[in-house]
Amino acid sequence: DQQVKQNSPSLSVQEGRISILNCDYTNSMFDYFLWYKKYPAEGPTFLISISSIKDKNEDGRFTVFLNKSAKHLSLHIVPSQPGDSAVYFCAAREHNTNAGKSTFGDGTTLTVKP
Amino acid sequence: DTGVSQDPRHKITKRGQNVTFRCDPISEHNRLYWYRQTLGQGPEFLTYFQNEAQLEKSRLLSDRFSAERPKGSFSTLEIQRTEQGDSAMYLCASTPQGGISGELFFGEGSRLTVL
User: Fold this and answer.
1) Inter-chain contact A99–B100, Cβ cutoff 8 Å?
2) Listed residue (B42, B10, B33) closest to B110, CA to CA
3) How far from each other are the two terminal CA atoms of chain B, in whole angstroms?
4) Contact call for residues B79 and B10 (beta carbons, < 8 A)
5) pLDDT tens figures, A82-96
6) Which of A11, A34, B18, B72 is 20 to 30 A away from residue A28, measured at CA?
């Protein structure tokens, strides 16, 4: 039973356009959601997070939206740049668990074409 | 570089051999995590240390796996009698005490190939 799902294995967008990466979850006990970016041969790096008490968090070109009723979150990147090409993981943390124990989705590979 | 460091980066071994991975976390981080990532999947939680105490272990961590963090600094993950199914990327991560969101600082990983 996969609690965090990223249904699109890959996404290709043109440079300058918006990239939208989606993530669905099933566990109502998740209280924090995080996005990580991973380049080949490197470990994942933290990108942005959102608490379950918010519906939007913005950091520069990156915005995460949370729809709790739909158990859905999305990461918007605008404008997309070729350097954004990477694998993006959605992760979720359960309330009252140790802070770093997250459940990850299987990732979406984003390709931004020049 | 003061990030999380893992060694070795790649280990190739024969089935049945023992392997050990080392992780040096960010120095001021007292929480250390091991995750495992197989091809096409996201990282899966294995175990967690706060200082030298191992506070949580996933049921993914069979009795062939053991992790330690002596003196609350570096950590080792040992796999005994390796099986082909153990082939994966083993990721170490650390977080500071008091972090709210649980942002993980990952190392570059140790890739294990069991022949």
Assistant:
1) yes
2) B10
3) 33
4) no
5) 999 999 999 999 877
6) A11
pLDDT digits (tens, 9 = 90+) for B30-61: 899 999 999 999 999 999 999 999 999 998 88
* Pairwise CB contact (< 8 Å): A101 & B33: yes
**Candidates B49, B104, B105, B108, partner chain A, best to mutate (most A CBs within 10 A):** B104
Helix, strand, coil percentages (3-state) for chain A, rounded to 5, are 5, 55, 40
pLDDT reported for residue B43 = 96
A39-82 pLDDT, tens digit each: 998 999 999 999 999 999 999 999 999 999 999 999 999 999 99
Q: Which two tokens stand for residue B80?
A: 């005994």
Distance from C-alpha of A91 to C-alpha of A35, rounded to nearest angstrom: 6
| pLDDT attached to residue A95 | 77
Q: What are the beta bridge partners of residue A83?
A: none
- Residue B106 near chain A (CB below 8 Å): yes
**Is A100 within 8 Å of chain B by CB?**
yes
Name which of B105, B73, B21, B30 is nearest A102 in CA terms.
B105
Kindly state the greatest CA–CA separation across chain A: 44
